[in-house]
Amino acid sequence: MNRQNDVLIRCHGVTKQYRKGNNLVTPLESLDLDVPRGDFLALMGPSGSGKTTLLNLLSGIDQPTSGSIEMDGVKVHALNRRELAAWRAHHVGYIFQLYHLVPVLTAFENVELPLLLDDMPRRERQERVEAALSLVGLSDRMHHFPRELSGGQEQRVAIARALVADPPLLVADEPTGDLDRQAADAILGLLHELANGQGKTIVMVTHDPKAAEAAARLLHLEKGRLLEAVS
After folding, report:
1. Which helix (DSSP H) or strand (DSSP E) does residue 75 occupy?
2. pTM for this predicted structure
């Protein structure tokens, strides 16, 4: 199948507004965007340009004020809160800048957390967690606590947690922002492999031009509008 013709996410006329005091703030306005399956897309733009807002809309954390967002034929914008929570659990993995690992849990237990929401046999959970940690190169660290890991290793645990339910979409908000260059490059290499080798679709927000270079596509947002696309 031609990956470019297989659209995973389709946004049409997406606008997001909210009240801040007496002001109406519009982080995104009339945005159209198609994301092919298996794409590795980077979003860049100044603070307040709508990048994180767009990530939250794509991942179902938030909903648009108007417009439509569809993923694999599902009208995500039309789901209620309960439906969104169930949909997110199986379709989206979120990778944060600051990892958000639970410090009293081991790497294995942190990765296992999303699976505890499902009625899944213990053996299957174990196999999935071990496979995810192996994929990110941390099979030998699965019983270590976050305090015993480097920043790069913590981010790998966070990526394994995002992967463990096998979602088609990974969204990453500044995934290398808290890492040194060597660790950041290793994480970017891993994301590249997940897109190209594992077929994951990745949408990444970054301020780092080096990180953006690792993506297959780069889109620029400014004041809630898509300004430029670079192949």
Report:
1. strand 74-75
2. 0.89
